[in-house]
């Protein structure tokens, strides 16, 4: 038990460090290859921060723990909106200028509804998982198309400033890209082993561990990225990072986990409790940031509401586990 707890702690630390190195290396490499700043911000930075969720869920599925993989994906989305955006908005109100971010939020809501429809029968087949991956490929293609056609968006300006601040030689960028990926895989393996061992020792299901401890740990890169972005005044990166990550979790993370290990059945609570909570938070965020003006703000009051919803969900989770 002690060794498993140390594995979770050590896995989290290595996971956060490796995710940061991986994203920085990938972004710098993409910049050296001539990729537009807006495309780097939307694809590499936005989706790259979800690498921990992807690798952890893949490892969990390989190890025969699909409930942990599914719980990690949905739980991470709840953490991203309720905890990360809630805390970030409380620290500093987030002003959304980017038209691209505004378009992605309704799309995230639609993707969440699609995932709920697929999971509604209590199964996740390999074919359904492949459909999710096809949707992810379509999403990336759309993102590239929009990024190549858009000029002057606020997200592009903020990403360009971020890349200038993190500039590194191509050899160093490639080194951290590879080393970050290797460390991600190793840390994910350690974390999954520790989480499953603790869950079994405490008599808690893999799903609950995935929704709580693992989801929080794999979302730490998004928390760090959002807080740093807001402190630098890069508000569109802060919220765009979360929205992009959530779409990645629903399409790629669940899709990869289902292809590796299809789920013939999983607890009904995933739909009635966890997916429902995720959708309520997603719709709430959409309503909070919707506006006909050029800029809308996720102020401290709205951030507090998101944080309260996150606390309420976890209280609901605790009650259902104890009953």
TrEMBL record:
| Pfam families in the record | Na_Ca_ex
Keywords in UniProt for this one?
A: Membrane, Transmembrane, Transmembrane helix
Organism of this sequence: Zhongshania marina
Supply the Gene3D superfamilies for this chain.
NCX, central ion-binding region
InterPro entries registered for this protein in UniProt: K/Na/Ca-exchanger, NaCa_Exmemb, NCX_ion-bd_dom_sf
What is the protein named? Calcium/sodium antiporter
Record carries keyword Secreted: no
Q: Which residues form the Sodium/calcium exchanger membrane region domain?
A: 4-144, 173-318
Q: Where in the cell is it found?
A: Membrane
Record's bilayer topology term = Multi-pass membrane protein
Q: Which residues cross the membrane?
A: 69-93, 105-123, 129-148, 173-196, 208-230, 242-263, 275-292, 304-322
